[in-house]
Amino acid sequence: MTTELRFSKDHEWVRVESDGVAVIGVTDFAAGQLGDVVYVDLPEEGDTITAGTEMGEIESTKSVSDLFSPITGTVTEVNQAVVDAPELVNASPFEDGWLIRASFEELPEDLLTREQYTELVGE
Amino acid sequence: MLDQPLNATALSAIHEGLGAAFTDFAGWQMPVRYTSDLAEHHAVRRSAGIFDLSHMGEIRLQGPEAGQALDHALAGKLSGLSVGRAKYSLMLTEDGGVVDDVIVYRLAEETYLVVANAGNAPEVARELTERSRGHDVQVRDESAGIALIAVQGPASEGIVVTALADAAVAGISAQDVADLRYYRVLQGTYQGAELLLARTGYTREDGFELYVPAAQAVDLWELLTAAGGEDLVPCGLASRDTLRLEAGMPLYGHELGRDILPAQAGLGRVVALAAKGDFVGRAAIETADLEGARVLVGLAAEGRRAGRAGSAVKDTAGAVIGEITSGALSPSLGHPVAMAFIDPDHAEPGTDLVIDVRGKDLPARVVPLPFYTRD
């Protein structure tokens, strides 16, 4: 059973799965802002990621944006499907468009709840 | 200093109704996309897209010496254009650089229409007026009053034929449309006002550009949309840019500018030195020493990361030998394409080069333009 989504101010989401591993992606808001995603540059398995620092890039037809890590930990898996078909980020940002899985000690305290994130993006 | 409000075209409310995202292009509020850049791009190559290009400028020259005035004002031999034909041309500075690239239509013996880019239209109109002094011709900037709608794609002929069968259209039959060849223009009326139908475009697909007074724009857009149904997709400036890039067509401000001589951009043939007498920029073109001057080439790469305008181009030894002017991951070809000005000794097709994409060196190769042709 997965826990609730948490969100970063940089429009990433984090979901902790039953095995204690975090799944990370970008939100539907981010995907909408980006437009058609054509390329994702992700960290590799085994890489350390640090909350709030840049861990890769996400490129759309019109722009390139940094991907910021929402948590501190170690990458355990990269979503090859998204690497092969970046448009999955637009089609399914919370499900098939997940970006990486990572192990971690604890989640940062300043991750937002869904309500707080919704307020942030002003929907 | 207060910001100037953006100009809106006569079709603005339609774009809003379609949920368009807007951008400021040359002081105009224009749709950049309606749904997805890629979907709009693919629609043009596979079916048809409809574009609002009303921000562009239209300057009419009327009089017995209209052709001679244009021969003097522009780089090409416009007086030699037959009635009903269109010609791509350039307006040059005294130094031979490019003020704008334009399409000129000869509508009648003594009537020409010059279509300019939105950002340059006021200057082109001023220069045409200035350069026409001493010729028996009237120059009228009609940009504000004319709307321009383009329909581009393999399905465009059928759509335009269906639309123009409407009772409000006179003077252009279905056969006329089918018979209209590339770079030719027909005149008729729509709701009693002047309609120009040209088989021109910026995509390398079959397509048409329709000019009507702004008052007719909304009805014409809806007429075309009804005729096209699902086969006709509204397309914004984002898809327009990837389509023209694939087509290897220059965009002013990227591949063309005041500091670029036509021959550098592969447009030497547009300058009619042999066919006519003096024109603005002639002396500079004749005496220009282009030895070592950078030239425009096409670059193709593998993968998905595209160099963009401003990206450095290097030789395989790492020396910077040029700069990209336009670049994108080509939606139709599936790999990165770019146009770049590079040192001429590296310009041979097949030359291996390197593009600096945000600090990463990615291999690329010089390829002939255009990248895409209609098969």
UniProtKB/TrEMBL annotation, chain A:
Question: Which branch of life, at top level?
Answer: Bacteria
Q: Which CDD domains did the record assign?
A: GCS_H
Q: Name one GO biological process term.
A: glycine decarboxylation via glycine cleavage system
Residues of the Lipoyl-binding domain? 21-103
Task: List the SUPFAM superfamilies.
Answer: Single hybrid motif
Chain positions with N6-lipoyllysine modification:
62
Similarity remark: Belongs to the GcvH family.
Q: What is this protein called?
A: Glycine cleavage system H protein
